[in-house]
Amino acid sequence: MTCFNHQRRRSWLSWWLGLGLLSLAACQPATVDDAVNGDREPVVAEQLVLRNATLEQADESGNVLWKINAQRTSYSEDKQTATLEDLTGNLLQDGEIILKVRAAGGEVRLEEDGEKVFLRGQIEATDPRNDLTIRAQELDWLPREDRVVARQNLRVSHPQLEVVAEEARYQTREEQLDLLGKVVATAKEQPVQLQSEKLSWAIDARLLTSDRGIELTRYQAPETSNALNLLERSANRSLALGADIGLILAPPPLPERITDRVVAEQAELNLETLVVLLRDAVESRSLEPPLQIASDSIVWSLKPRTVLADQPVQVFHRQDQVELAANQGFADLERETVQLSDGALGRNPQNGSELSADEILWQIPERRVQAEGSVIYKQPDPPLHLVGSRAVGNLDQQNITITGGSNQRVVTNIMP
After folding, report:
1. For 95, how many CA atoms within 13 A lie in the half-sphere containing its CB?
2. pTM of the prediction?
3. Which residues contact 22 (CB under 8 A, 6 or more apart)?
4. 70 bridge partner residues
5. Mind giving me the DSSP string for 323-390?
6. Phi then psi dihedrals of residue 363, to 5 deg
7. Which residues make beta-bridge pairs with 385?
């Protein structure tokens, strides 16, 4: 085994160049004297090949940038490129290992002063600081930029997340991973999947963000097995979010039953709390209850299935056709209740009934509404207009009881 260790001013190839020339000179075949054989035949340079060699590269301060062992190392004729086969090694930063790598092959290009390493074929790179593993067919290490770029059959694994994408750009110093192109990310603790054209992953902060539009699908968690077990079974089935996405590698399998799906222009998912902050054109659709919730700002808590809107929100029941709107709202989808505040309005277009109040509580299974503050109820048939401080009833059945409170009376207008 041979080891190289040097400064930037002294390329690691220089260690081998003299040795290579000596080897080549020793291996030249005997030649016939010029006087006998005429002009001398040109000498053909042979390729320098090393077996089971260890190569290193250091910066100006003597810090090792990478250290790689290759079973076979060969150099190009101009000695500007070293081609490596069957390699393992470490990529370092400030003397600390930031990626442990293995690959079928790779290259070090000397015109770049040995500072760029290109790995090719069956690559596996693991960051021991955070257990992130990148698998791909191409991986480039750019030490000057503290950056790794991986692409082609890309898959990223982590204890919290599994991702497939077209390209990954890893800022090794910040431990920030940007994933580009048909990204599908699957959380392991809660069966939820995200799709976007770009995801930025702050690994240490455990945050996923997207500013290019995102679709999030929540699945019913298995009752007898953890979602992590499902992720380890097979990667042969592609479960796209709403459409086929044609990935080379399929995302991990998930339970069949979808509970909710959300789309937005911007999103931030906390992988620790499983709370999603969604912004701009947010729309949430749930299966049970069959609700559609729309707002420009929503906080989605995946575990308890709650939706909090701190901006004007619209709620629509797809089966009963009941519509509600308010300046703020909260939905507990497991308990099937919706609470609207700061000026709320409920309407049933099928019978024309309408209820407005400061606050409205809607209990969906019972089809029961409860309104508080500045209550106004209207219906066209029979024509009715009621005003009070509190109301309880059913908009479907046009059965509403209005009360005026201790110091108020109910005002009833019978429309002609």
Report:
1. 4
2. 0.77
3. none
4. 53, 87
5. EEEEEEEEEETTTTEEEEEEEEEEEETTTTEEEEESEEEEETTTTEEEEEEEEEEEEETTEEEEEEEE
6. -100, 105
7. 378, 413
CA separation for the pair 234, 16 (Å, rounded): 46
Task: Answer for the pair 299, 275: CB distance below 8 angstroms, yes or no.
Answer: yes
- 367 burial via Cβ count (<10 Å: 0-12, 13-18, 19+): middle
Q: Which of 385, 316, 386, 373 is nearest to 347 (CA)?
A: 316
pLDDT tens for the chain, 416 residues: list them.
444 443 443 444 433 433 333 333 333 444 434 434 445 444 444 568 889 889 888 888 888 889 999 999 998 877 778 899 999 999 999 889 999 999 999 988 765 555 788 999 999 999 999 999 999 999 999 888 899 999 999 999 999 999 999 999 999 999 999 999 999 999 988 889 999 999 999 999 999 999 989 999 999 876 644 443 433 333 333 222 233 333 334 555 665 689 999 999 999 999 999 999 999 999 999 999 999 999 999 999 999 999 999 999 999 999 988 999 999 999 999 999 999 999 999 998 888 889 999 999 999 998 899 999 999 999 888 888 889 999 998 877 778 888 886 555 555 544 44
CB 355 within 8 A of CB 375: yes
Residue appearing with tokens 């299935």: 305
> In 3-state terms, what secondary structure has residue 110?
helix
The Cα–Cα gap between 255 and 219 comes to 6
